[in-house]
Write a structure and sequence with these properties.
single chain; 14 strands; alpha/beta; six-stranded mixed sheet
Amino acid sequence: MRRKAVEIINFTKKFGDFTAVEDLNLDIYENEIFGLLGPNGSGKTTTLLTIATVYKPTSGDIYVYGHSVTREDYEVRKLVGIAFQEPKAMWIDKAIDLLTWHARIVGYPREEAKRVVREVMELLGLWEHRNKYFYQLSGGTRKKVELAKVLIQKPRIAILDEPTAQVDVLSKHALWDVIKKLRSEGTTVIIATNDMFEAERVCERIAIIYRGKLRALGTISELKDSVPKGDIIEIQVQEELRDREALRELEVFGRVSVNSDMITIYSDKAEEKVVDVIDALRKRGLQVKRIMVKEPSLDDVFTYLTGAKLRE
């Protein structure tokens, strides 16, 4: 049986009258890359910050290798490193000074700190920016500096909140490889993201969170298999669909959802039904502008479970 790195039990967090996370229960296992997937405001960051002891639960508890974030926050902080969604630094900090200070704080002797900082900065392509002030760095480079703190620390649990936001496409792929390397060296990695491709590319298991509640939990394939009649037919028509009778006729092919001029049908053997779908629409006077048949993506899974889009 796999050891639990994090155990979240009946976790609720409120800010005044607002409930950010409600009755969340899930386990994160040792040495996995675990993803919290959901749009902004879904409760991902609140959950991560509570695991890192920045917040305390309103009710319930979270255990990190058996230590309660409520009663043993000092012990938990020894085990966790976090790269925040918004990089934390003074504007007048130089990148190399900030990371050297961080290395000393987490326990490296002076000379060892210098070596490790250079090694990590070169790995992330930061060495050429080492003497720039924080305010001189681009948003993507600041994110890399924030991630560098975790790579220097090498904690048992690494928490990464939107780790590649504001980062260019080439750098994203490089950072994903760095995250996998961190896991291969023994660290459990928890990622919060609203990037479907990032979740599929990096995470082994995913919790889909929406409006503070857990909607689904599993591997990528398990989540995709959770969509009944998992093939998807997407049809864009010339104008907004107002004829609800046409919608009812399409239900013979599978579950139907409509958003303005886009019709989505969840079906099986979709490629065999496309011609019949087009005929049914034409009989109602609807002109098909574009049609596509595909397997469900995580975005499709999310929409099926919540009726919303990941990047709403």
